[in-house]
Specification:
- With 166 residues, the chain is α/β, with parallel strands linked by helices.
- It has one domain: Rossmann fold.
- 33% of the residues lie in helices and 19% in strands.
- The chain contains seven helices and seven strands.
- The strands form two sheets. A five-stranded parallel sheet has the order 5-4-1-6-7, sandwiched between helices. A two-stranded antiparallel sheet has the order 2-3.
- Strand 2 and strand 3 form a beta hairpin.
- The chain is globular.
């Protein structure tokens, strides 16, 4: 399985790379239902810069976008430097969609960690409910509106990233 024995970043999109209030429309696709100043994937460049010193960190998509669009199509929304790091997703087509959707995000990630068996891992997500206690040291909670652009989130993520990669 891709990512086994490697350093992994579990990456959510909504509330991490852009505002959490992302909606889907059958003809226009995903869009943000917020005021000016918010655009889809507005923090991709910031994440790219934070990961730049750590070229061996791979990404596993832990976003509901994968349930709707699949891993490859979801990854195409990322900048090329991030996209090339993507090795998979917490959801795949052989899973029960309904069961996966009903599982809290933290457990989705933990189940993937148990399958993939990375050397170490971190998760960026704005949803804090449902994370197992033992997984919290690997979790950086993002701001639901500011995502990873929040200075406190950046500081926590950078520190945890540095420790993971040491």
């Amino acid at each position: 399985m891709k990512g086994t024995g490697h350093l992994l970043l579990y990456l959510d999109f909504d509330g991490v790379l852009h505002h959490e209030n992302c909606l889907w429309h059958p003809t226009i696709g995903p869009y943000l239902c917020e005021g000016e100043g918010y655009v889809l994937f507005q923090h991709c460049e910031l994440l790219e810069k934070m990961l730049e010193p750590y070229p061996y960190v791979q990404i596993v998509l832990s976003t509901m976008w994968v349930v709707r669009y699949g891993c490859a199509k979801s990854a195409k929304n990322l900048r090329p430097a991030l996209r090339q790091r993507v090795v998979g997703a917490t959801y795949h087509s052989r899973m029960s969609r309904a069961e996966f959707v009903d599982t809290p995000r933290g457990l989705q990630v933990w189940q993937d960690v148990m399958r993939r068996k990375p050397r170490d891992w971190l998760a960026l997500d704005d949803v804090h409910i449902g994370w197992p206690e033992h997984a919290l040291p690997h979790y950086a909670r993002t701001h639901k509106h500011a995502g990873i652009s929040d200075p406190a989130v950046q500081a926590e993520f950078k520190q945890k990233l540095k420790e993971m990669c040491a």
